[in-house]
Amino acid sequence: MTQATHSTTAATALTCKECGAEYELKATHVCEYCFGPLEVSYDYSQLQRTVTRQTIEAGPNSIWRYRPFLPVQTDNYIDVGTGMTPLLQANRLARRLGLKRLFIKNDAVNMPTLSFKDRVVSVALSRARELGFSTVSCASTGNLANSTAAIAAHAGLDCCVFIPADLEAGKVLGTLIYSPTVMAVQGNYDQVNRLCCEVANTHGWGFVNINLRPYYSEGSKTLGYEVAEQLGWQLPDHIVAPLASGSLFSKIYKGFQEFIKVGLVDEKAVRFSGAQADGCSPIAQAFAEGRDFINPVKPNTIAKSIAIGNPADGVYALEIARKTNGNIASVSDAEIIDGIKLLAETEGIFTETAGGTTIAVLKKLVEAGKIDPDETTVAYITGNGLKTQEAVQGYIGEPLTIEPKLDSFERAWERAQTLDRLEWQQVLV
Ligand SMILES: *Cc1c(COP(=O)(O)O)cnc(C)c1O
Ligand SMILES: [Zn+2]
Questions:
Q1: Cis bond leading into 242, ω under 30°?
Q2: What is the whole-number distance in angstroms between the Cα of residue 12 and the centre of ligand 2?
Q3: Which CATH number fits domain 87-113+220-391: 3.40.50.720, 2.40.70.10, 3.30.1360.40, 3.40.50.1100?
C-alpha cells in the first residue's frame, strides 16, 4: 500500500553501538572491528524539519505513520495494519494494585498475528524486500515465527522458520497455517539461534533477527511512539515491559528519546522497569547482583516466548533500567498464571505468559514500593492468551454443564450463588 502522506526515512547508516564505526544500510548486524551490535542511526535535523504531530496524525492508522523514523526507503513497505493498538486506562486493575493512573498498551490484539512481533517483522520484511531477499527466516520463541510466516505470505516471500520443538500447540499451528517450512529444533531457543547463525552464513537468507536485526529491532520503537501519541503527546512516568533479548525494552527507550530530540514531546525522565520469569532471568539476576554483564542461563519456565537464556541486548536493558531509576524483577510460574488471570478478571484482556509475567512483576514492584501510586504507569502487554492455552489449563475452572431445561438451569444458578467463585467453577451439575 502506498501512502502519499509525508517525507521519506531519515535513516542514514548502521552504527556500531560499542565503537561507533559506520556501515551502509545493508544486511549486516555485527561490527567488523569490535563485534558490537549495529543499530540504525538517523538525521535528526531532517526529522526536526519535516515531522510534526500533524504530519504523523495525518498518516496511516498503523506503524507506518512513523515512517520517517523507520529504516525503510521505498514506498513499497508492507502495511498489514500493524500497530496503533489500544492504550487502555486500566482503572479496575489500578484499584486492585493500589495505583492511580495505570494504562495497558494492548499488543495482544496487534495485527496480523496478535503479538508485538508484527511490528518488528513488518519493518524487517519491508527492508528484506528492498535488499532483494527472496527467502526470509527467523530463530523464534514462537510469536516471531507466527509473524514472519504470516507477513511473508502476504508479501509473497518464501519462508523457512526455526522454533524449539517444545513450543505451545497454538504457536506451532499459528505458524503452519501460512505454509512456510517449519524446522522444529530439538533444543532450546539459544541452540536454535546458534544454528540459525550458521544457516544465515551458508544460505543467503534474510533472517529477521540475525542479519536483518538492526531493521527488525527498530520496529519496537513504535511501541514508544504510540504510547506518547496516545497519551496526548506526553510521556508516562514509568513503564513496565517484558524482557527476552532485551531489544523491545531498549527500543521503547530509544523511541521516547527520539521524540524528545525531535521536539514532539516534552523532556521527561521516564523510569524503565523490566519483567522476567524466575525460570529464565539472566537480566534480573545481573540487576539484583549489581553486575554489568550477563551470565547466560538454561531456560525452564512456562513463559516460553521470553525464554532467552543468552540475551543479545541484555546489557543495554540493564543500563537503561539503572540509569532511569527503574527495576528488573522476576516472578515464578505460579505468579505468571495469577498475573494472566488478574488482567483477564479486572480488564477483560486475555494475555499470554509474557503478559502474565509483566502483570505479576508490576504487582510485585507496587507492593515493594518501587512504583509510586501517583506515577502514570504503562504496562506493555505483548501477546495473546489464546496462543498459550496450556499455561492456564486446569487453573480456570470448568463450565456448569446443564440440561436444556429451565429447572436444571435454576438449580445450577442457585448453587453457583452459594459457592464461592473458584469452587463453583469446578462443579459439574
Ligand atoms: C519476543 C517477545 C518479547 C520480548 O522480546 P525482546 O525484544 O527479545 O526482548 C516479549 N513478549 C512477547 C510476547 C514476545 O513474543
Ligand atoms: Zn564496533
A1: no
A2: 17
A3: 3.40.50.1100
